[in-house]
Amino acid sequence: MLQLRFINRQSLLVLDNLCTKKGVHFTIPRNGSQMPITTTSSSTKKLLFRQLFEKDSSTYTYLLADVSHPQKPALLIDPVDKTVDRDLSLIKELGLKLIYAMNTHVHADHVTGTGLIKSKVSGVKSIISKASGSKADLLIEPGDKVSFGDLFLEVRATPGHTLGCVTYVTGDGPDQPQPRMAFTGDTLLIRGCGRTDFQGGSSQQLYNSVHSQIFTLPKDTFIYPAHDYRGFTVSTVGEEMLYNPRLTKDEETFEGIMKNLNLSYPKMMDVAVPANMVCGLQDPISKA
Ligand SMILES: N[C@@H](CCC(=O)N[C@@H](CSS)C(=O)NCC(=O)O)C(=O)O
């Protein structure tokens, strides 16, 4: 909560401090998918947005930056260790200053790129929820805001896939991108949802999280999940409220579906979970 409030109240100050006093983070080089900016309001020009894909785990990483701000502060959501060099190259090519590497939760199927990023780019702060029980520079809580330039993400607790899952939602307001964008991690997938059979998972909680924290957003809010296994890239709240084959059911039916998924455990689970509890590297924070 401490750090969260810090971000809330003094986001610009934080950025200034990072840039001047601590002489922090700077980027490195190249590539990723070149999706256009998806927002349409007058604030469109401010947000640079890229959806990046890691094929072995079918993970999406998201790059967001305020390109109207002189520093072009940027953040990555759910970076993967294998694609860190690609992501950092892109950030460098676009002239952005990476300030945050954040996770929606402790992933079980791949190693987060957060620790590696911190070892390669000085000053980047790692972020994860306090409820995850993981190590990171900033432990966020529901209601916190993560600011980058004049833009921000709001933090919503969406437990169910894991106990510490959060959804990051772009800010509400005329100076923030419209429609809004929700980065749902594994809580809500396109026409699916995260499994609930390990890491403190609970189908009851997931059902409640989606209905209370995601389906209450405006229907045109874009849904950007952490994975897709079928080639989908984006959905909307309205679309999922109509067509999600799990979350459109009543709670009892949903629980039955989740009990009978019969998925095998992720291949990387025994390596990924312990690594991700410490940002993906054994104690990178103390070295950074
Ligand atoms: N086969 C993959 C793991 C696939 C998997 O279990 N995906 C998770 C998200 S990553 S923990 C999930 O929640 N899937 C829900 C679904 O309905 O598919 C591997 O071995 O890594």
Automatic annotation (TrEMBL):
Keywords: Acetylation, Dioxygenase, Iron, Metal-binding, Mitochondrion, Oxidoreductase, Transit peptide. Belongs to the metallo-beta-lactamase superfamily. Glyoxalase II family. It is found in: Mitochondrion. It catalyses: S-sulfanylglutathione + O2 + H2O = sulfite + glutathione + 2 H(+). GO terms for biological process: glutathione metabolic process; hydrogen sulfide metabolic process. One of its GO terms (cellular component) is mitochondrion. It holds the Pfam family Lactamase_B. Its cofactor is Fe(2+). The keyword RNA-binding does not apply. GO terms for molecular function: metal ion binding; sulfur dioxygenase activity. It comes from Cephalotus follicularis. Residues 58-227 form the Metallo-beta-lactamase domain. Its EC number is 1.13.11.18. It comes from the Eukaryota. This is persulfide dioxygenase.
